[in-house]
Amino acid sequence: GLGDERARRPIDETRNARTFFPALFGLFVVVSGGWAALRAGPWAGAAVAALLVAEPTVRAHAALATSDFLIAFLLLGAAFLLDLSDAESRPGRALLAAAGVVYGLAMAAKYSALPFLPVFGAVAFLRLRRPRSPRLLGRRSVPRQKEKVAPPLPERLPVRRAAWLVLAAVVLPALATAWTVQEIVMSSTSRESLVRGIRTQFADSQPLEKALWMGENLPKGLAGYGAGLLWVRASSVPGFRPNYFFGRVSGKGNIAYFPVALAVKLTTATAAMFLTALAVALVVLGAAMRSRRAGERASRALRRGRLVAARAFVPGALALAYLGAASLS
Predict the structure, then answer these.
(1) Contact, 107 vs 174, CB < 8 A?
(2) Collapsing DSSP states into helix, strand and coil, what is residue 289?
(3) Per-residue pLDDT tens for 117-135?
């Protein structure tokens, strides 16, 4: 918080912060590898963990005391919990709420997570609306019969129930968690110090009056978060920061900046992994299409293709949403 207490030297603050990030990097590798192992087997988990350990971009960010790696870890954890959740059991609903709480921590860590909350909620809605397997309905709900009978059709969660569940278990916990963290952080800051800090930060800029109103009337945590959003918006207008792209300096940016920057930052190993995964998916899909006339073989191939699509649904949807929003920002 803000106050009269004298801050320590920046080098000491940085050293203290960096002691936390190696452990965070280890958790990042464990969660990523564990998620891949659960969805695609132990070899896939080992490959993902090994790639992250050797990937220079990830390792470089993990050694920096910034919010970039922290928000990446929290978003990964939220997506992982969402993928494990369901609406049929109490543990599944608890995991869904935990995903919302972790996403709230991501919003408290960096403003970049806030615009993607609707995207995360939409992915959760589609995840809950996905046809439920009979085995998830409970063992007692599927009677055992000696004769061969057709399995029951998969059930879908009603639209209204899925929407209310996403609102109550994902969106509201995320907002409440971000607010709680902000209130805790700002608890040691007096109202006078908060208003003085807002006035100093904004100076004579346009949103000064709105930021001052927040600092004087809203709860301190919400006021600090709102003033920060106003500052991010004010500093993101064209001309505020020069952008360097393909040998040119521009104040308006370029729509292709983020896709090109992402492609440049990808290492050879990461690009090879993505291309290999794409090739495997295309081979499975091609085998399914070629063997449609082969009876049981076609059924097995189609099930494999659907399994690949189901396992990649949550991470793929989040990745595509990020790339789409980043390319338009």
Answers:
(1) yes
(2) helix
(3) 999 999 999 888 776 544 3
